[in-house]
Design brief:
Blueprint lengths: L5 E6 L2 H17 L2 E10 L5 E11 L1 H7 L6
Antiparallel strand pairs: 1-3, 2-3
Length: about 70
């Protein structure tokens, strides 16, 4: 996942929303990000679309991959 990427899910039930949130959290953690933000938009068919964006501090390993700084 790129630093500015977002994850988008469409859901119709609370269970689907929870599954989307868990999946997004796992993706953010795998990308070395510890926090995420979200926004929800209603759809014409009664479902909703949620977009997650990974935020928060990079892990030291991820920072080393994306930075020109050398971490000692």
């Amino acid at each position: 996942m790129q630093a500015n990427s977002s994850l988008t899910y469409t859901y119709g039930t609370d269970a689907e929303l929870l599954a989307a949130q868990r999946n997004a959290q796992a993706c953010c953690m795998n990308a070395g990000r510890s926090q995420m933000s979200s926004s929800i938009m209603p759809n014409a068919d009664g479902t909703k679309t949620i977009m997650f964006k990974c935020n928060g501090p990079w892990s030291m390993a991820e920072l080393a991959k994306t930075s020109s700084l050398t971490i000692i």
